[in-house]
Amino acid sequence: MEVPDLRDMVEDEVAHKDFEAQVVDKAIRYIRDSERWIQLLDLVVEETINASLKAELRRSWRQ
């Protein structure tokens, strides 16, 4: 599984919205300093771990 790169994601969004390229660094600094970003990242990690554990349980039940 490929891990998304934050810079690539921000650059794509900036290009999509036709913003100036210098917005990328400012946006990344804002995201990294944002408490909400950390909360969302924690949620994604937790959901990923739970999904992985559920998939592992299903595989073990089939065996």
Automatic annotation (TrEMBL):
Superkingdom: Bacteria
Protein name, as recorded: Uncharacterized protein
Organism per entry: Pusillibacter faecalis
